[in-house]
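SUBJECT: A protein chain and its fold
Encoding: whole-number codes for local backbone shapes
RECORD BEGINS BELOW THIS LINE
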Amino acid sequence: MKKVLLACLILIFCVSANAQENQETFAVVWQWTTGDRDKVNTNLATQATHLLDLWREGIVENVYLNTEAKFTDDEPMPNVVFFIKAKNKKDAKKTLNKMVFVKESIAQYELYPVGSLWLIKHEDFQKLHMDDQ
């Protein structure tokens, strides 16, 4: 009985957290399409600023950089992966296609749906449910 109750609580939490935002979350995995280091360097600040703006707006979260990667003769680095929240895949693509790396054919991305949020920080859970009261 305890296991069933726990499973129900987890399900309710997942549904309420996702319903709160009414958005889907996608993992965005980038792949370089150019080896032109000058082109990358020229547009890097614009790309980073746009990404930071999306993070401040709550659209992008959990940005990960491959910090061991460097520019090599074969491939410009570092690689970047992050999560994006959008109503659907089409809206996520619309946001990402505005980024300079896409517009300038510097990098391309793949979107992977990640499903419902299950675990968040305890403080975030409390804040999420305090706002409902």
User: Anything to note?
Assistant: The two ends are 29 Å apart (CA to CA). Strands lie at 24-32, 60-65, 80-86, 107-113. The helical segments are 2-21, 37-56, 89-96, 100-103, 122-130. Residues 4-9, 14-20 have pLDDT under 50 and may be disordered.
